[in-house]
Amino acid sequence: MSGTNAASGAAPCRFAHYFVICGIDTETGLEPDELAAFLCHVLKGKMLLQPLWENFEQSPLKRTFKSKVLAHYPENVEWNPFDQDAVNMLCMPKGLSFRTQADSREPQFHSFLITREDGSRTYGFVHTFYEEVTSPQICSAMQTLYQILDEADSPSSSSCRSAACGGYDASRDTLYVSKALCLITPMPFMHACRRFLSQMHRAVTAASPPPLPLESYVHNILYEVPLPPPGRSLKFHGVYEPIVCQRPGPGELPLADFPLGQTFTLLGVENLVQLFNCTLLEMQILLYSQDYQRLMTVAEGITTLLFPFQWQHVYVPILPASLLHFLDAPVPYLMGLQSKEGTDRSKLELPQEANLCFVDIDNHCIELPEDFPQFPNKPEFIQELSEVLLRYGISPVGGAPPTSLEDDGRNGNLGGEQLAVLELLQGNATLERLQALAKRTGVRVEALRGVGGEGEGQGGRTTVEEEELRNAKLNVQLREVFASRFTTMFADYEAFVIQSAPDLESWLTNREQMHNFDKASFLSDQPEPYLPFLSHFIETQMFATFIDNKIMSQWEEKEPLLRVFDGRIDKARLYNVRAPSLRSSNYQRCTVLKESAQAIEQRLMKIDHTAIHPHLLDMKIGQGKYEQGFFPKLQSDVLSVGPTNNKWSNRTATAQRRKDRHRQQTEHLTLDNDLKEKYMQEARSLGKNLRQPKLSDLSPAVIAQTNWKFVEGLLKECRMKTKRMLVEKMGREAVELGHGEANITGLEENTLIASLCDLLERIWSHGLQVKQVCRDTQTHTCAYTCTEQKHTHTLSNGPERRKSESSIGMPSLRASVIQDMRHIQSMGEIKTDVGRARAWIRLSLEKKLLSQHLKQLLSRQALTKKLYKRYAFLRCEEEKEQFLFHLLSLNTVDYFCFTSVFTTIMIPYRAVIIPIKKLSNAMTTSNPWVCVSGELGDSGVRQITKNILEMTFDCQNLGKLTTVQLGHDNSGLLAKWLVDCVMVRNEITGHTYKFPCGRWLGKGVDDGSLERVLIGELALPNADEDFGRGCRTPDMQHSPGQTRRVKPTSAQIQEAIGEAVNSICKHFHKPEKERGSLTILLCGEVGLVGALELFFHNGFKSARLFQKTVFVWDFVEKAVAYMESADQMGDMQETAEPLGLTCVSLCHYVSAINSSPRNIGKDGKFQLLVCLGARDRLLIQWLPLLVECPVIQRMYEESALLRDRTTVNALIAVLQTLHDFPITLEASLVKGIDL
């Protein structure tokens, strides 16, 4: 077997794939690294006016020179081909660095990763140190560069060239150059690799040679140290001390060895959560730091927290100079850019900053994009993370001082020994005095390491091992908090995955055209506070890839992250068979922090495997001679071939994978008896009853008892859920009536309904003969539909029936299970059976037919017996009746859970215009039209067929209806039209809205209006339409025109105004979801406009003059005309400036209303003026103008309220309270008004 094949044969099982040495090539000499120099200039904001090699004004010691891969072992690995250029570029991103004896030469550590074309990653860990330059050619070249620089500078400045000033003199100074040792591994064992490389460097710098030649240690880690098996720990030996690493088990979070504690320390919890949020939403993220390891630590930390999702876009934690153009890419990316000391951030020009999240790691700050949704439960999330950090002595604020890092505070290396010493000193007075004494005498604590090795910690572990254990426990607990959030938010994601392809090949072929996830149904089930974030997140590439992996798992082995995530969801369900808490928007804290930390500690305390010790190799004598301070040239012949006799090197990848898979499945799917008993006890304590894993092993009596308890538990839960839904809907009123405690409210209606859907699904699935792939409620309704197709007319209770001809109105809409199912099936937005079942439940609940529909489903006993076993809940008659009774109680409150959730569906609407036949021409020669408006939009103008007072049209969901615009073109001889009201019904939900009118439409009659804006309210169903729902007959409603004929007293008018203003104030003090329609409060029958009309009509001289009725708008127009004429004659020049501006505003508004293209009448214009004045806070400024106008004396009696100064001042004070609220008018009210 060749060396290459030997090296590659066991590669999948090896701890490390390559050992690499990078540094200076003495044969080629010094080569300027122009790309690295270009990056330096860009970061300093300089413009390059000439080639870089002509503009090297920097000191030669600070310039960048090309490095090279001096050696790598083995030559190649089949599983992971060696990329020499990439490794060289990432091992020494800044190129070679030179120092003299006067400069700091502390070793540095950083890591990197390489992403291959298939998405797999390879990790690199680099230890960089400085080695003395022994090549005379290199020293001479450096001396020459300084001489060239001295000649270019003035003599006075050249006299300062010395070691102290950063110069170099070959006769006086010692020259050092950077060299890098690198391990390339398939998994991110950062701490283990860092310790191994550190010990290799110590072996070179120690006074005495290492116990064995360095080739023995390199050969050992390349060929004789295996990867730890999943869920196991491994110990192998470095040059001086053993090194321990561990690998998570198959049910645990995947390996992540980068210290999250340092990431939180650098950024703080608040900033990190914001960065995490931007990463989830796939924005452009640029990390910025002087230190490479900080870039890598933050990048790996943030991507690790994405579990179970994975970053799918450009990922370059350390951006080399040659790839700087990546920053111009118009795609999401996560990249790290090294900054230079003293660089001004403002001079760093970055493209597309509007969508960029810029993270300045060294300054502990973050610049966020302009607008993006926040992560759900962000304050509680931050609080839980802060508590975890504080338990480990880490401040959640962030911004740690550089001294908390390793020896070199400037380069940001990972904290290790110094942190341990610092923690040891804190709180110990004796040790603090010893530390002070050591400082005075010049003794360094680090120097003790060479005498006694690494200090002893607890349980015989060294301080370094203690620090690694602490970091590992902190890592896993922080990650569990993040993973818990996703487990809560996506606990039911599988129900909305669309799996329609018969095989993998057809799915891959049609992938782009297929819908894989029922987004509309998923969002309809989520708590409202989650929707802004989730609606964006489910559109990301990482979520799409996650769903793709889920679909492909039915044909292939599950992707590891998906397997772990699904296992966690299954475990949550095993704990609690559909806990209501999973449906709540209340924050759910992570419950496995202690267990996860214990699993890590147990693996590190109890070593499962020990690798072969390093040993002497068959080497040539005389090569690789030890020389202190210099890393020797290793013998490549002994490092290119692995051993052929150890027990694992010949193990094939296939056999290993088979064993690992079998063990993982065994550990993942089986629970021991103790764990089963633990789950059962916890379930009982929560009042839940779990099905035993193997009911076949139990006696029939025990089975019956278990099912009876389950039925009893479902009924109890139904009672609790319906009560909670009623209490939540009634709010404080329910608490005052003693139906609940004050803290029971606060859940969103959407969350409670989704929880009810869960309960119904569990009830319908209990005792089912054959479990279906789709939801069991949907299965039952489909079976019922098929059974009843022949009897559709019976279920529909006959065709639609009109009322008697003597009372023209809306035809009745009968309840029908089948018809509702057809409506749901026609909704193209819903892709899955579970989505359809839940939409049907929402529709039935909104129509107050849920109990009735379910009772109708269960009325066919033959079908129920066919689908369900004898012990099923739906075949327990007494419990079933109680269950339906509890659901019937939900009819006492109004839900819009269907209308408010499915906002984009097409809905058929029926509109009926009801004239007053005794006073009007029921037949009209004009061409009428109607426009229906709701909270979600309007229908647009819909032409009505002449002399047909009824129409049906399809329109995108308008939400709750608010206004109807009704008009005609006044054509023909019989154009005048007296309309009593307009009725509009949503043909799917059955909600009927009544829009009272009671006015004429036509020129020369009433106020001359050809168009009226009618304000509607939800009409209660009458007894004929009720069909058993127990609702009362609605009260008689009067039109505004009829109301105006009654002359109320002055006290009644003032009371009406006070009530109208009070209702608007109450509207704004309610939670936004409970406010209802502001338009009704402004323009409804008891609204503000109607109350002010009564005020202005009091004492108004509206007697007929020459057969013409005078309206309030006539008074307003005459007052405005007087103001305009007085202004032109100069009578208002002496008026105070604010009053003059008020006159201008009133004239401007009246002119805009009169010049509107709409054919609204005079009363409609007055309504519009009041609404605009209330919106723009001008009413109380206009009233004094109208009162002071001389026109009022001609048009109002002496006793009129408008001429009573005291009453007007009281009215102004009442209207003043509206200025505290932002009044917004519907588009239908202000259409065509140009202000």
Task: Please specify the SSE layout and strand pairing.
Blueprint: H1 3-9, E1 18-23, H2 34-43, E2 68-73, H3 84-91, E3 98-100, E4 108-115, E5 121-132, H4 136-152, H5 155-158, E6 175-185, H6 190-205, H7 214-224, E7 233-237, E8 242-246, H8 260-267, H9 269-280, E9 284-289, H10 292-304, E10 314-316, E11 333-338, E12 356-360, E13 365-367, H11 378-391, H12 417-425, H13 429-441, H14 449-452, H15 463-489, H16 504-509, H17 519-524, H18 531-537, H19 541-552, H20 560-575, H21 593-605, E14 609-610, H22 636-639, H23 653-669, H24 673-685, H25 700-730, H26 732-736, H27 749-765, H28 776-788, H29 792-795, H30 817-825, H31 833-846, H32 850-857, H33 861-867, H34 877-888, E15 906-915, E16 928-934, E17 937-938, E18 942-943, E19 950-956, E20 961-968, E21 977-986, E22 992-1001, E23 1011-1015, E24 1017-1018, H35 1023-1026, H36 1040-1043, H37 1050-1069, H38 1078-1083, H39 1088-1097, H40 1112-1129, H41 1137-1154, H42 1162-1175, H43 1179-1188, H44 1191-1195, H45 1205-1216, H46 1227-1230
InterPro entries: cDENN_dom, dDENN_dom, DEN5A/B, DENN_C, PLAT/LH2_dom, PLAT/LH2_dom_sf, PLAT_RAB6IP1, Run_dom
Biased composition (Polar residues): 645-655
Pfam family, one: dDENN
